[in-house]
Design brief:
By secondary structure, the chain is α+β, with helices and mostly antiparallel strands. It has a domain of 132 residues: Butyryl-CoA Dehydrogenase, subunit A, domain 2 (Beta Barrel), CATH 2.40.110. Helices cover 50% and strands 9% of the residues. α9 runs antiparallel to α10, α9 crosses α17 and α17 packs antiparallel against α19. The N terminus is likely disordered. The chain binds ligand LJ27NJHV and flavin-adenine dinucleotide. The site of flavin-adenine dinucleotide (FAD) has 22 residues, from β1 and α12. Ligand LJ27NJHV binds next to α4, α5, α6, α8 and α10. InterPro entries: ACOX_C_alpha1, Acyl-CoA_ox_N, Acyl-CoA_Oxase/DH_mid-dom_sf, Acyl-CoA_oxidase, Acyl-CoA_oxidase_C, AcylCo_DH-like_C, AcylCoA_DH/ox_N_sf, AcylCoA_DH/oxidase_NM_dom_sf. GO terms for molecular function: acyl-CoA oxidase activity; FAD binding; fatty acid binding. This is Acyl-coenzyme A oxidase.
């Protein structure tokens, strides 16, 4: 599909091929993809004379390719959608924290319906629609419909099933969710208690089930349940189940469905109707089991296809991959706010009464902020690479090559875990970097945190996912002597013998500026931690018992491996041609900051495995400090390059024009408490108390 073609028609008309469960596949680009441009600016204490980004119209994105040198293909679409959303009154940012749950939810329905209307009217491409969703910035049922329901049918349905269901889903004539988690089981998918029992008499299934899904909107769900036919169990499979009437939206007979109630934070993820669902003898036709992996015949016989059963988990691999890119977006947003505000905010400074120091000039502020800025870029690059990996694995799957599936699973699981944990921590750090004002709702950071933090849990608890990576790594180590060559992200393990012996060559601080030196240190650390775990595991008679006992160390080894992937993809990126004056140099600095800060934070690993000496660690730290000074002059430009509108940022502290204080003051007066000068409750509670004090004083 070309982006010029209509989104709706194209999706409907496109051939529904097996295994093509990446709706964004054609947008995949391994090219550099910063949403924005290189704008060397000096920040003189904050306020710029440019006005807000929305006010600037075409000035805002200053497309001066000769000066800026380089625009990724994605930029145009992203910028256009950002402005479309920012200028549409229906998409205005409500003060979500102030809305009741019902208002909040209805607003989301209104925005989602309007987005869909605009998508059709403007004949937006898939890429454009996806960007629009991003800038609308409100978790909604549509995320699950497009992000999980549709991919589940594409990945796990037969060609016939796809032809039946996908046109309905693409036109949103049915709305679906992904109903897998139960009250008692989430991580343990094989332990799901929902059963789907085949009844050959009537050619139907029956269910008993308790999900996390969509409580108020979905008409359909892909429900995961253990298949039972002829009294035998055949593992967990997906089933398309209609939940509500397409006429009046009432639940169908045997179905009890509702919302699970308020979640963390005010506003935040409460725009989403996570739901509870109970089936009481609900019957669905046999052909509504997604049968690409296994087919159930009319007689109730199970016929396994040549596709590995892990494909049932395929939707999760797809979504985990998208979550990595989303991590970069959430992190860059928080960093943009904290960086701009740090340039505006002044505290302490010269004793001679001169102007106070911008807090961004404090080394402590830089040492907390700039590694987060570097991480935002690092996650963007690793996210792009992961998209490529996913595209590659789906193409292979179509050709019945399943060889790279385990690596794709390990990479998506591990990087989802690493990037979401780091991003959640980083958003909170950005709040602290903004001092007291960071705690105000109007800073945008509290809600960003509340919306973001469940990413550490959904789509696989982060620790559970790292344990999956650890299993993969232990398998790889155990095969080292067998002649099976590790490939892809574990290729470095083929050099395990060398890496176990290697000595870091750094003698002076600048030696840490060699990518090969950094890579080798990270590879050596990962190999040594993995091999140490494998050796400890081998002492256990029962490997599963050993795995449980050593799980904390295994998680550390998995983290080391995932950090190596991010560092190596950043370095690879820099080996490509990157046009634009000074861009590559700045990215190089960020790459070193990312790597050396990790080294500093995980010094225990590097020292205890003997990968580096304490002297080399100290040189790395010296060098890291000097790199902060090199980022400082371009820090504002580096966050402006994300090209976020003030509408999207939703933060008084992160305003493009730096006009923070007057706007904070203005914002305060919008609070409902300030509607009246004397508060409600004065007569009832405050006045009697004051009078009592007065009486006591007179006594
Ligand atoms: C308002 C605007 C409107 C605009 C409208 C339109 C816009 C349209 C634009 C498009 C937008 C798109 C949006 C996308 C956004 C998406 C947002 C999504 C939000 C997410 C919400 C959250 C959803 C959920 O949480 S769903 C539930 C997720 N659940 C989990 O993740 C459960 C976690 N548990 C597991 O994954 C497994 O159970 C596991 C792996 C932990 C253990 O499984 P099991 O017990 O079977 O494992 P093992 O025995 O350990 O493994 C067996 C074997 O299988 C291998 N394996 C495991 N998993 C996988 C896998 N996924 N893939 C491949 N292989 C796997 C494992 O390695 C083992 O292999 P061996 O070789 O045998 O060792
Ligand atoms: C906002 C949100 C949206 C969601 N949306 C959906 C949805 O659309 N569809 C859907 O089906 N589900 C959804 N979920 C559910 C989500 O996928 C699960 O909550 C998630 O997979 C974690 O599973 P759990 O709740 O069973 O956690 P648990 O597995 O119970 O985890 C609890 C603790 O136990 C630890 N733990 C668990 N197993 C192990 C182990 N083997 N070894 C070591 N430690 C372990 C974990 O690390 C964690 O600390 C959503 C959840 C949230 C929060």
């Amino acid at each position: 599909m070309s982006s010029a073609q209509g989104f709706l028609n194209d999706w409907v008309e496109s051939r529904v091929g097996l295994g093509s469960n990446i709706s964004n596949s054609r947008n995949t680009s391994v090219s550099y993809n910063i949403k924005g441009c290189w704008i060397p600016l000096t920040d003189n204490g904050g306020r710029r004379s440019l006005g807000s980004r929305e006010e600037q119209g075409s000035v805002r994105c200053r497309r001066d390719e000769d000066r800026l040198g380089w625009f990724p293909p994605h930029f145009d679409v992203s910028d256009r959608m950002a402005r479309l959303v920012a200028s549409d009154p229906v998409f205005r940012k409500d003060n979500r924290a102030m809305l009741s749950r019902k208002e909040l939810f209805k607003n989301t329905l209104r925005k989602a319906a309007h987005a869909w209307k605009r998508i059709i009217e403007l004949r937006l491409s898939e890429e454009e629609a996806s960007e629009m969703r991003f800038y609308v910035d409100e978790p909604a049922f549509t995320d699950l419909h497009w992000g999980m329901f549709v991919p589940a049918i594409k990945g796990q349905g037969t060609e016939e099933q796809q032809q039946k269901w996908l046109p309905l889903a693409y036109k949103m004539q049915i709305i679906g969710c992904y109903a897998q988690t139960e009250l008692g089981h989430g991580s343990n998918v094989q332990g799901l208690e929902t059963t789907a029992t085949f009844d050959p008499e009537s050619d139907e299934f029956s269910f008993i089930w308790w999900p996390g899904g969509l409580g108020k909107v979905s008409t359909h769900a892909v429900v995961y349940a253990r298949l039972i036919t002829e009294g035998q169990e055949h593992g967990v499979h997906g089933f398309i189940v209609q939940l509500r009437s397409l006429d009046d939206h009432m639940p169908l007979p045997g179905i009890t469905v509702g919302d699970i109630g308020m979640k963390f934070g005010t506003g935040a993820y409460n725009t989403m109707d996570n739901g509870v669902l109970r089936f009481d003898n609900v019957r669905i036709p046999r052909n509504q089991m997604l049968m690409r992996v296994m087919r159930v015949t009319r007689e109730g016989k199970c016929v396994q296809s040549n596709v590995p059963r892990q494909l049932i988990y395929g939707t999760m691999v797809y979504v985990r991959q998208t979550i990595v890119s989303d991590a970069s977006s959430a992190l860059s947003r928080a960093v943009c706010i904290a960086t701009r505000y740090s340039a505006v905010r002044r505290q302490f400074g010269p004793q001679d009464g001169g102007v106070e120091t911008q807090v961004i000039d404090y080394k402590t502020q830089q040492s907390r902020l700039f590694p987060l800025l570097a991480s935002a870029y690092a996650f963007r690059f690793v996210g792009e690479w992961l998209k490529w990996l996913y595209l590659d694995v789906t193409q292979r799957l179509q050709a019945n090559d399943f060889s790279t599936l385990p690596e794709a699973h390990a990479c998506t699981a591990g990087l989802k875990s690493l990037t979401t944990s780091a991003t959640a921590d980083a958003i909170e750090e950005c709040r602290k970097l903004c001092g007291g004002h960071g705690y105000l709702s109007s800073s945008g950071l509290p809600e960003l945190f509340a919306v973001y933090v469940p990413a550490c849990t959904y789509e696989g608890d982060n620790v559970v996912l790292l344990l999956q990576v650890a299993r993969f790594l232990m398998k790889t180590v155990s095969q080292l002597g067998s002649g099976k060559k590790p490939v892809g992200t574990t290729a470095y393990m083929a050099r395990a013998e060398d890496l176990l012996q290697s000595r870091c060559s750094v003698q002076k601080a600048e030696d840490w500026l060699k990518p090969s030196v950094i890579l080798e240190a990270f590879e050596a650390r990962a190999v040594r931690m993995c091999v140490a775990c494998a050796q400890s595991l081998s002492k256990f008679q029962n490997p599963e018992e050993g795995f449980l006992e050593l799980s904390a160390d295994l998680v550390e080894a998995a983290i080391a491996h995932c950090q190596l992937i991010v560092v190596s993809k950043f370095i690879e990126k820099l080996q490509q041609d990157i046009p634009g004056k000074g861009v590559k140099q700045q990215l190089q600095i960020l790459c070193y900051i990312y790597a050396l800060n990790l080294l500093h934070k995980h010094l225990g690993d590097f020292l205890s495995t003997g990968c580096i000496t304490p002297k080399q660690a100290s040189l790395a730290n010296d060098h890291l400090r000097s790199l902060y000074s090199k980022v400082r002059p371009n820090a504002i430009a580096l966050v402006d390059a994300f090209n976020y509108t003030d509408h999207f940022l939703g933060s008084v502290l992160g305003r493009y024009d730096g006009n923070v204080y007057p706007k904070l003051y203005e914002e305060a007066w919008k609070d409902p408490l300030n509607d009246s000068v004397v508060p409600d409750g004065y007569q009832e509670y405050i006045r009697p108390m004051l009078k009592q004090q007065l009486r006591n004083a007179r006594l």
